[in-house]
Automatic annotation (TrEMBL):
Residues 130-167 form the Peripheral subunit-binding (PSBD) domain. Forms a 24-polypeptide structural core with octahedral symmetry. Keywords: Acyltransferase, Lipoyl, Transferase. This is Acetoin dehydrogenase dihydrolipoyllysine-residue acetyltransferase subunit. CDD domains: lipoyl_domain. NCBIfam families: PRK14875.1 (NF011457). Its EC number is 2.3.1.12. Its cofactor is (R)-lipoate. One of its GO terms (molecular function) is dihydrolipoyllysine-residue acetyltransferase activity. Residues 2-77 form the Lipoyl-binding domain. SUPFAM superfamilies: alpha/beta-Hydrolases, Peripheral subunit-binding domain of 2-oxo acid dehydrogenase complex, Single hybrid motif. It comes from the Bacteria. It comes from Rhizobium alvei. Belongs to the 2-oxoacid dehydrogenase family.
Length: 442
């Protein structure tokens, strides 16, 4: 069975990297620990390590291409296996260009105006070392002519810090003025942070991740949706871009996300959540004060009392790759479907600040041993819009039978042979189900 070698995310704000070397070819045998490619970010060149053993059966990029983080660089399978990209993986609608905004920069929730979009192809300065992909993207979203920014990167390249410094110190009139393309939000340290994963039209879709994850985990899934809507994602307190903060209980988590939504003017929105994030989505939808167009809950917490407390404590206490992998394997029915790069990415995220301490503080406020300290059953019952629950029947974190508590008006899809990560284990199917729920809102 084909397994991916993903483009790693080696920094919180890294969204893509340039492929500078492909060290294998289709048909080559590889094993765990082999270096298969080199990728260049704005800061360094780093090696891509193989976490699988088998034969290279597909290479998605060539040298010089820009690879998107957490998307497959290549596929590993069995000798003689032919890899065919499933038609179901291709979006029915060609996805608009991804727009990434690193807080506290401006957030694009509408399509970028033509006069600003025209700046996007500027890949090099007239004099100097060009600009990084992230710097170019931030410049487009902020309405900055990147040719007017002095670079401090290698060979004078414009990098992220240069754009940020320009925004802070730019004289009046040096930034293009436009309306409706972005909103400036200065988030406080530790607050939930919203970023854009796809520019589009219509009512935005907001994704909310689960405990121990971060918003970038949704990136590979977005291509499964085949929708033209703007797609946003939020980092919960103690996670991702909000890793420096925490929350004392479930209500505080919900309030943090609601505050981030209010700061972005998100009053009419589709909500999609996973696990703890699904419970947050249900609580917001059931509040009745926002126009939540549709609600999709994937492996939701908050519908019953049980939680795998051993997983939570084991996940938080693991400080090595083998130990962490032993616990992360519980997330999926088939451990072979868990990309090895996710283990390293999780450990890497813990190296920057008190991530584990803040997540442990948050966990203590929502879980007690094997018990969930909150419920969203009543909130879900109050929600009258299109709603769907998707659960894996082999979920070893939140029991699948908790979905039996769902109100009669909520559709429930039970997926055999799937664990706690349906959006990873059955991505094409789950993508179709999420898109159907969104489209059913009209």
């Amino acid at each position: 069975m084909a397994r991916p070698i993903l483009m790693p995310q080696v920094g919180q704000d890294l969204t893509e990297g340039k492929v500078t070397a492909i060290l294998v070819k289709v048909g080559d045998k590889v094993k765990k620990g082999d270096i298969v490619a080199e990728v260049e970010s704005e800061k360094a060149v780093f090696e891509v390590e193989c976490f699988e053993t088998g034969t290279i059966i597909d290479i998605a990029y060539k040298v010089g291409d820009m690879a998107v983080v957490l998307e497959p660089l290549m596929m590993v399978g069995e000798e003689g296996e032919v890899y065919e990209k499933a038609a179901a993986q291709a979006p029915a609608v060609a996805p608009p260009a991804v727009v990434e905004v690193a807080a506290p920069a401006v957030l694009a929730t509408k399509s970028v105006p033509a006069q600003v979009e025209a700046l996007a192809p500027a890949t090099a300065l007239a004099v100097g070392g060009g600009s990084s992909p992230l710097a170019r993207r931030l410049a487009v979203q902020a309405g900055i002519d990147i040719t007017s920014v002095a670079g401090s990167g290698p060979r004078g390249a414009v990098v992220k810090r240069d754009i940020e410094a320009f925004q802070k110190n730019a004289p009046k009139g040096s930034v293009l003025a436009f309306t409706g393309a972005s909103r400036g939000v200065a988030a406080k340290a530790g607050d939930s942070v919203i970023k854009s994963l796809q520019a589009g039209t219509g009512d935005p879709v907001l994704f909310i991740h689960g405990f121990g994850s971060e918003l970038s985990s949704w990136r590979p899934f977005v291509s499964q949706l085949g929708i033209a809507n703007t797609v946003l994602a939020v980092d919960l307190p103690a996670h991702g871009a909000a890793a420096t903060g925490s929350a004392g209980d479930f209500d505080a988590i919900v309030q943090s996300v609601r505050s981030a939504m209010a700061a972005e003017g998100l009053e009419r929105v589709h909500l999609v959540g996973h696990s703890l994030g699904a419970a947050v989505a249900a609580a917001i939808a059931g509040g009745g004060d926002l126009d939540v167009r549709s609600l999709t809950l994937i492996a939701p917490a908050g519908l019953g009392p049980r939680i795998n407390g051993d997983f939570v404590s084991g996940f938080l206490s693991s400080s090595s790759e083998p130990a962490l992998k032993a616990w992360l394997d519980l997330l999926v029915a088939d451990p072979a479907k868990l990309p090895g790069v996710l283990v390293r990415a999780t450990l890497s995220a813990r190296e920057a600040g008190p991530v584990v301490e803040n997540q442990a503080r948050l966990a203590a406020g929502v879980f007690a041993g094997c018990t969930q300290l909150f419920s969203v059953r009543e909130a879900l019952a109050r929600y009258e819009g299109p709603a769907r629950i998707i659960v894996g029947q082999q979920d070893r974190i939140v029991p699948a039978d908790h979905a039996e508590a769902a109100p009669a008006q909520v559709a429930v899809n039970r997926l055999p042979g799937v664990g706690h990560l349906p959006q990873l284990e059955a991505a094409p199917l789950v993508g179709r189900l999420v898109a159907q729920t969104i489209r059913s809102a009209g």
